[in-house]
C-alpha cells in the first residue's frame, strides 16, 4: 500500500483522482490523545514534548493517515493579549479579551505558540516521511472575535464595522506570520474558523467579514508552497460555495448531509468529514462503521473520511477504530 502522504498527494490532484483504500483521519487532537495516553490535558496543552508524544501515540494506536497539532482554540488569542484560565483537565476559557492591547506577535516567542511549532517539528521528525502533519491555526474571523471579545465583536460588526475590520486585520497579519513558521517546521497550516459558522452568522456577514480575510490567508499559505484546508463547525449548508471560494484545497465539514456537500462543492474538491461526534462518543462500533460507510458512499472519490469535528475526549477506542477500519476495509 502506498504511504498516506503519497495517497493524499494523489487526491489533491485536480482531476478525479482515486486512491485505495480511501484516506481516513478521525480528528484526534490534544484532548482525546491525552486521555488515551493517561496524560493530564493541561500538561499536553503546555508542553511540546508531551503534546507531540500523545499525538504520536494516538497516530500509532489508530494507524490513520494524517496527524493534526491542535491544542485549543485560544493559543493565538492568548499570545496576542487575551487572558485565559487553564483548568487541569478542561480546555482553557477566555476570561478577558485583549481589546486595544491586541497586537501582532512573533510566534517563535509568544506564549504557547512556540510550543505548537516545536510539537509540529517533532512530529514531522517522527512521522513526516509517511504522513502530513497538519497544524491548526485559527481563521481571522474567529481570532478577531476572541481579541475583541465575542459579544463586543458581533455588536461592532453591525454598529462599527471599521473597528471590527481593525481586529480582522490584526488577526490576518498574525496568522500569515504563524503560517510561515508552521511551513518552516514542515507542517501544513490547516485553518479552523468556528465562529464563522453558518450557525453563528449569516451568509451575507460571512461574505463581507470572513471570506476576504480567509482568501488572503489561504493565498499567503499558497505563496509559501503549501496546500491548506478549512474546517468550519456547525451548519455550513449556505456557505459551502463561499468556503470553496477561499481557495482551500480541503473543505472540512461538521455533521450534515455529505451527499449535499458533494453536490455543492463539486466533484473536484476534497471533502473531509463527517461521522457524528455524538455517535462516536456514545454509539456502538457497528453503528459507527455503518455511518462511516455511508459517508464514503456519498463523498468519494475525493474524500478524507473523518469525524465531524474533534473526537470527544472520552470516546471509546473501539469506536475510533471502527471509523478507521471502515476506510481501510473499503
Structure summary:
The protein is α/β, with parallel strands linked by helices and 330 residues long. The chain is built from 15 helices and ten strands.
How would the blueprint of this fold be written?
Elements lengths: L3 H8 L11 E3 L4 H8 L3 H4 L3 H15 L3 E4 L5 H5 L3 E3 L7 E4 L16 H15 L4 E7 L1 H9 L1 H10 L1 H24 L3 E5 L10 H21 L5 E4 L7 H6 L4 E4 L4 H8 L4 E6 L1 H6 L2 H15 L3 E5 L9 H12 L2
Parallel strand pairs: 1-10, 2-5, 5-6, 6-7, 7-8, 8-9, 9-10
Antiparallel strand pairs: 3-4
Helix pairs in contact: 2-4, 4-6, 7-8, 7-9, 8-9, 9-10, 14-15
Helix-strand pattern: HEHHHEHEEHEHHHEHEHEHEHHEH
Query: What does the radius of gyration come to?
Result: 18 Å
Please list the strands of the largest sheet in the order they lie side by side: 1-10-9-8-7-6-5-2
- Low-pLDDT parts are none
Shape: globular
Mean of pLDDT = 96
Total helix count?
15
Query: How is the main sheet built?
Result: 8 strands, parallel
Structural class, from helix and strand content?
A: alpha/beta
Helicity, as a percent range: 40-55%
User: What's the number of extended β-strand segments?
Assistant: 10
What is the straight-line distance between the termini?
Answer: 13 Å
| Percent in strands | 5-15%
Amino acid at each position: 500500500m502506498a504511504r498516506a502522504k503519497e495517497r493524499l498527494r494523489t487526491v489533491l490532484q485536480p482531476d478525479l483522482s482515486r486512491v485505495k483504500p480511501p484516506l481516513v483521519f478521525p480528528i484526534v487532537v490534544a484532548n482525546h490523545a491525552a486521555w488515551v495516553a493517561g496524560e493530564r490535558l493541561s500538561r499536553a496543552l503546555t508542553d511540546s514534548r508531551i503534546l507531540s508524544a500523545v499525538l504520536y501515540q494516538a497516530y500509532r494506536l489508530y494507524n490513520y493517515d494524517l496527524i493534526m497539532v491542535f491544542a485549543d482554540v485560544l493559543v493565538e488569542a492568548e499570545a496576542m493579549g487575551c487572558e485565559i484560565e487553564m483548568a487541569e483537565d478542561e480546555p482553557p476559557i477566555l476570561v478577558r479579551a485583549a481589546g486595544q492591547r491586541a497586537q501582532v506577535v512573533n510566534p517563535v516567542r509568544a506564549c504557547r505558540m512556540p510550543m505548537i511549532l516545536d510539537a509540529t517539528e517533532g512530529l514531522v521528525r517522527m512521522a513526516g516521511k509517511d504522513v502530513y502533519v497538519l497544524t491548526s491555526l485559527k481563521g481571522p474571523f474567529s481570532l478577531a472575535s476572541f481579541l475583541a471579545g465575542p459579544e463586543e465583536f458581533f455588536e461592532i460588526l453591525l454598529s462599527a464595522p471599521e473597528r471590527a475590520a481593525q481586529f480582522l486585520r490584526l488577526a490576518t497579519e498574525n496568522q500569515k506570520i504563524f503560517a510561515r513558521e508552521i511551513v518552516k517546521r514542515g507542517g501544513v497550516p490547516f485553518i479552523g474558523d468556528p465562529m464563522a459558522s453558518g450557525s453563528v452568522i449569516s451568509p451575507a456577514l460571512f461574505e463581507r467579514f470572513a471570506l476576504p480575510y480567509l482568501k488572503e490567508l489561504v493565498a499567503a499559505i499558497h505563496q509559501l508552497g503549501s496546500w491548506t484546508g478549512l474546517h468550519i463547525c456547525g451548519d455550513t449548508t449556505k456557505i459551502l460555495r463561499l468556503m470553496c471560494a477561499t481557495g482551500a484545497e480541503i473543505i472540512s465539514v461538521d455533521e450534515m448531509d455529505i451527499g449535499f456537500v458533494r453536490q455543492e462543492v463539486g466533484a473536484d474538491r476534497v471533502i473531509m468529514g463527517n461521522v457524528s461526534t455524538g455517535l462516536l462518543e456514545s454509539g456502538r462500533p457497528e453503528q459507527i462503521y455503518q455511518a462511516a460507510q455511508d459517508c464514503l458512499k456519498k463523498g468519494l472519490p475525493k474524500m478524507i473520511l473523518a469525524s465531524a469535528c474533534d473526537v470527544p475526549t472520552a470516546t471509546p477506542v473501539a469506536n475510533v477504530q471502527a471509523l478507521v477500519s471502515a476506510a481501510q476495509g473499503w
